[in-house]
Design goal:
single chain; alpha/beta; Rossmann fold; 4 strands; 8% strand
Length: 195
């Protein structure tokens, strides 16, 4: 898996400065090479990927952490986003999606894979409109209100209105929480539009 991902990234012109098979080795490589992005599995032979992500966020906050894992449940996403992980992709994502996610995380945007939902996701009492869902996807891609307004050819005030509606409908206190809750509700927050 590691070698295949490296080939995909290098074929897309992304420099892979190091690879590691354990969490301890990954932390050493991050300290030595100071990469823009750390592509990290949650299941490592010597430690949890969550612990590695926490250490990187604490010691090297400039490194964007992108999780690539087989776990698709939203319950895995929340604690990772809370510690500052910028991306969460399924191992079954296509090479194109992985490359786009690495580039997005390197650019400082947040990427949460489509389909990361909880088996017990409650349904929304008031569903998001198509435009609100579009705004939410752009929020998940890391765009600010002004950027979203330009993208959708609407005013910033209109975007602010949609963002407020999204937060209220999802009962979220922040953009990050809204993205997590949207995933819990089974909404495909990030697809091709969001990377």
């Amino acid at each position: 898996m590691r070698e295949g991902t490296q080939l995909i990234l290098e074929a897309a012109g992304i420099e892979v400065v190091a690879t590691a098979g354990t969490g301890a080795e990954a932390l050493r490589m991050v300290a030595r090479h100071q990469p823009d992005v750390l592509l990290l599995d949650l299941q490592l032979p010597d430690t949890s990927g969550v612990e590695v992500a926490q250490a990187v966020r604490r010691d090297r906050p400039e490194v964007g952490v992108l999780i690539l894992t087989g776990h698709a449940e939203a319950g895995y996403i929340r604690p990772l986003l809370q510690i500052g992980v910028r991306g969460y992709m399924h191992k079954m994502a296509s090479g194109v999606e992985i490359v786009a996610a690495v580039r997005a995380v390197a650019a400082g945007r947040m990427i949460v894979m489509s389909g990361a939902v909880s088996a017990s996701s409650p349904s929304l009492s008031t569903p998001l409109t198509a435009r609100e869902l579009q705004v939410l996807r752009l929020m998940a891609a890391g765009l600010r209100n002004a950027d979203i307004a330009r993208e959708l050819c609407v005013s910033v005030k209109t975007v602010e209105h949609h963002v407020t509606n999204v937060l209220v409908k999802l009962r979220a206190q922040s953009r990050t929480q809204a993205i997590v809750k949207a995933q819990q509700h089974g909404l495909a927050v990030v697809g091709s539009q969001g990377v």
